[in-house]
Write a structure and sequence with these properties.
Blueprint: H1 14-38, E1 47-48, E2 60-61, H2 62-78, E3 84-86, E4 108-115, H3 117-122, E5 128-135, E6 138-146, E7 151-156, E8 160-163, E9 166-168, E10 180-183, H4 194-203, E11 207-210, H5 214-223, E12 228-231, H6 236-249, E13 252-255, E14 268-271, H7 276-292
Parallel strand pairs: 3-4, 10-11, 10-12
Antiparallel strand pairs: 1-2, 4-5, 5-6, 6-7, 7-8, 8-9, 12-14, 13-14
Helix pairs in contact: 1-2, 4-7, 5-6
Length: 298
């Protein structure tokens, strides 16, 4: 199977894109300041540990709630009528189970105020703020703040990716061996086939890392630091901002079947040019081996 490039998405009105980039960048800078000032310093009352019967990784913090509320207020003022979907609240801004956008919504915002919350709670320097504007074709604008490295990454459809204002573009000469591939656990732990995926990559002299932030995992591919990122499951707000970066940097984005997609559902692979087929093979062989052993459903 040969990996094909994704189809270009239609252009969006320039004034809207420019304003969305400016507002998203401002929010990302503000969030970065808050995260660096508070990480690892919360009291017990600031932190809600995961429910015993739910995900062991779904920490909730006052910082996350505060940042999302602020993001929602600013976006409501600047872009009235465009719904916001996020990690901590539902589309109406109420605490509860987040909902997915309706099919008839032209634009929507997706925000993850603290992507990598467990790392944030522990004071480990690997978490991010992620925000994206999307339409039915995928990300229109995306920003990811990497507070500990004082970096703001931003991208807009057909306008490229920038890191602290400097253009970023991947090239076709990235070495596909002796590299790093990122993945992330699901809400309940390692996805079935993780061990086989790691073994497949290792046999090809590639190391797999689980670092705890889907947004930063994909961003490492957009920057050329990692050759690929494979996410078995995720929410839209986990990945939308970083996918905007990856697409505009020239990375390949595929769904779990290997089909090109600007916003895959039910599993995604992001890879530097030339590495997508190899990483897809490790992933698909791991899934097939699990199926053949009766451990997953097709």
């Amino acid at each position: 199977m040969t990996v094909s490039p994704s189809q270009p998405a239609p252009a969006v009105e320039l004034g809207l894109v420019s304003r969305a980039l400016e507002v998203a960048g401002r929010l990302a800078n503000e969030a970065a300041d808050v995260i660096t000032a508070t990480a690892g310093r919360g009291t017990q009352s600031d932190i809600t540990p995961p429910d015993r019967d739910e995900s062991p990784f779904d920490w909730v913090t006052d910082t996350g709630r505060t940042l999302e509320r602020h993001t929602r207020r600013v976006l409501a003022d600047e872009f009235p009528g465009i719904p916001v979907f996020g990690e901590e609240f539902d589309s109406a801004g109420k605490v509860g189970v987040p909902v997915q956008p309706s099919a008839g919504t032209r634009f929507r915002w997706a925000v993850d105020p603290v992507d990598g919350t467990a790392n944030y709670v522990a004071g480990m320097p690997w978490c991010a703020y992620s925000l994206a504007m999307l339409d039915e074709h995928g990300p229109v604008v995306g920003v990811v703040a990497d507070p500990y490295r004082a970096r703001i990454y931003a991208a807009a459809r057909d306008r490229g990716m920038r890191a602290n204002g400097s253009p970023v573009r991947l090239t076709d000469d990235k070495e596909a061996r002796a590299g790093i591939v990122c993945t992330e656990f699901t809400k309940t732990g390692p996805w079935r086939g993780t061990d086989r995926f790691i073994a497949n990559a290792a046999a090809d002299h590639v190391s797999v890392r689980v670092l705890g932030s889907p947004a930063l995992a994909i961003t490492q591919v957009a920057l050329g630091h990692a050759m690929a990122a494979v996410l078995h499951s995720y929410e839209e707000w986990d990945v939308a901002g970083a996918l905007a970066l990856a697409l505009e940097a020239g990375a390949t984005v595929l769904d779990s079947t290997g089909a090109p997609s600007r916003l895959p559902r039910g599993g995604l692979l992001v890879a530097v040019p030339g590495a997508a087929q190899r990483a897809l093979d490790w992933w698909q062989r791991a899934r097939q081996e699990e199926i053949s052993h009766g451990r997953v459903e097709q």
